[in-house]
Each structure stands twice: as C-alpha cells, then as structure tokens.
Amino acid sequence: MGCGLDTVLCVIDEPRLPALNPDELTPEQRDVYDAIVGGPRPGNVFSFRDEEGRLLGPFNAMLYSPAVGGPLQELGAALRFRTSFTKREREIATLVVAAWFRSDYEWYAHERIGRRAGLTEDELTALRTGVDPVLADARERIVYAAARTLAADGDLTAPMFAEATASLGRSAVVELVSLVGYYSALALQLRVFRVGLPDGAPPPAWGPEET
To answer: What is the 3-state secondary structure (H, E, C) of 130-141?
Structure first.
C-alpha cells in the first residue's frame, strides 16, 4: 500500500477493516453495496470486488458507515461521470492526486482507466514519477497544474485561479476542487485503513519523494 509523504508515520500492516461478505450485510449496507456494484464503474478495467464478491479499495470502507458511504459513492459517481471534463482531463487530475499521496490502489485503478481514456505511457510515467507531462492541449495543462497545486498546497494562487477560471470556467473549477478533495479523502482512507492492492497487482514505481 502507499504510505504517502509522511513515511515515518506510516506502518505497513494488515487491513484494519475486514472485508465484509455480501451475504452478511445489513439492509443499509446492502443498499450501498448494490449502488457500487450496479453503478457504471468499469469493473472490466480494474478489480473492485474479490472472488467472493467482497469490495476492494475504498469501497469496503463505505459499507461500514452507510450514512456516509452512500453519499460518498454518489459523489464519486458524479465526479467520474457527470462533470464537464473530458475523460483525459479527469484522469489527469485523479492521477495527480494518486501520485501526490502515493496511493497504490488509487493509482492501480486510475492508471488503467487513464490508459483507456487515451493517456500515453509517457504521460502516465510522468504523472507517476512527479515529472510535468508534455501535454499538447491547453486545457489539460491547466487541469494538471491546478490539480497539482491543489494536492500540494490545498489552495490556488490568485494568478492560477484566474487562469483556471478563464480557461475552464467557474463551474469546472468548482468540479476540479471537488474532484481533488474527493480523491484526497479516498487516499487518506486507503492509507489509514491499510488497504492494499488486489492479489497479483504490482505496486507502482513511485518517483523520488518531494520536499
């Protein structure tokens, strides 16, 4: 699993939330489970269930608090499928967050989605190792720069905010801040709950840690 920037404080150990069996869920948990499994997530791209149907990645944690997990997965679906971003733009921003927090599962899932969205191997390598990718599209460059700044600083400078608003529009800036916040929250959950990768998935080769 990824330990993020504060590796001194991160101890790799067993998952802290046992994977819940689908046939042992409460009605409230089952509603969340069905919403996740029945949603438009591309299960043929990455694994979010094991052979017994138990949820992997951040999704198992959502079952432990259905009152929070239900709206959280709905927010994720909205950010994945109902924003104004192109698929490439969305995955660039998501992978920036995954790489910043060194979130193994987040990278595992969204590298595969990003590749399907058209991100090249050179672009994926640059994003994974913290190198500025060569992006021909001006909007993608703004999405990348703004997402990177949001992940690192939790804010946008006045010039960057003005540039992002002019290039993307106010609605898209709201969506981008929400997207970075959402995937940052998932990265935190994945770290705290010691969530690992599906069996057989190799860990990402992260670049040097940033200071």
So the answer is: CCCCCCCCHHHH
